[in-house]
Amino acid sequence: MFEKIREDIRAVFDRDPAARNTLEILTAYPGVHALLFHRLAHWLWHAGAKWLARVVSHIARWLTGIEIHPAAVIGRRFFIDHGMGVVIGETAVIGDDCTLYHGVTLGGTSWQKGKRHPTLLDDVVVGAGAKVLGPIEIGRGARIGSNAVVVRDVPNSSTVVGVPGRLVERKDGAADNEHREKIASKMGFDAYGATSDAPDPVAHAINCMLDHVHVMESKMQRMCEAMREMGYEPGDDEVPDDLGSCEIISTAEELHKMQLEEGEKVD
């Protein structure tokens, strides 16, 4: 038991740069308190003292703002950052090295008994306010963006954002566990399930359509040239000179890049 507590403390140091010392973690981190209460409640639940387990869980909820059902299965090095408003349902299963932020719900979508809550495999990060609902599986190393609503399975090493959740990134190759252990110190932890290069899925889809239209226009232009060579004049509707770009801009960085490109054309 004490080894697990030491692991939990190390996990806080790894994933929260605001953590200063062990005493602070043990006395001022509600996520750690909720996990300690849950371990006791989980033991009581399986020992047959289900009412007492629910009472312990209720006390933990009152003290920490985090509600974890005593029957939920939680792996090692689990970390809840901030914690207020987190809800973890009865049949939820959480693997090792997972991280949840405030406002996360691992909830069910049915009133029927049996498996009705999600399963999170190892090394999953669920951002603030995200809702993961139903008996679905979130793959190893997946990232759920803040305020996403996920109701379908998520592949390994993927990023999901939006309502409903959309897959925006999938990393190729096997997971590099050694690299993940060094994320906090070298590359920065994927806080709130947000990756620095995650694209806007709607903007990406529209831009792909615009690229397709550009290819079609190029083909039509070559067809018109071929028709003129054969002696037929198809007509030529002029495109207004002041017609601006219709590319979707989703970040300030993309807007700045487009402005620079337009400046280079003018020069």
Structure description:
28% of the residues are buried. 40% of the residues lie in helices and 15% in strands. Helix 3 (30-46) packs antiparallel against helix 4 (50-64). The protein has two domains: 2-196, UDP N-Acetylglucosamine Acyltransferase, domain 1; 200-234. It is built from eight helices and 15 strands. It is an alpha/beta fold and 267 residues long.
Could you list some keywords that capture this structure?
five-stranded parallel beta sheet; 8 helices; alpha/beta; elongated
- Total of DSSP H or I helical runs spanning 4+ residues: 8
CATH domain class name of the largest domain:
Mainly Beta
Q: What is the spatial order of strands in the main beta sheet?
A: 3-6-9-12-14-15
Question: Structural class of the secondary structure composition?
Answer: alpha/beta
Please tell me what the overall shape is. Answer: elongated
Query: How far apart, in Å, are the first and last alpha carbons?
Result: 68 Å
How many structural domains can be distinguished in the coordinates? 2
Assigned CATH architecture of the largest domain: 3 Solenoid
Mean pLDDT: 80
**Strand share of the residues?**
5-15%
Question: What's the order of the H and E elements?
Answer: HHHHEEEEEEEEEEEEEEEHHHH
CATH names the topology of the largest domain as: UDP N-Acetylglucosamine Acyltransferase, domain 1
CATH superfamily grouping of the largest domain:
Hexapeptide repeat proteins
What is the radius of gyration computed over CA atoms, rounded to a whole number of angstroms? 25 Å
Name the helicity range.
40-55%
Largest sheet: 6 strands, mixed
Spans of at least 5 consecutive residues whose pLDDT stays below 50 are 173-177, 179-188
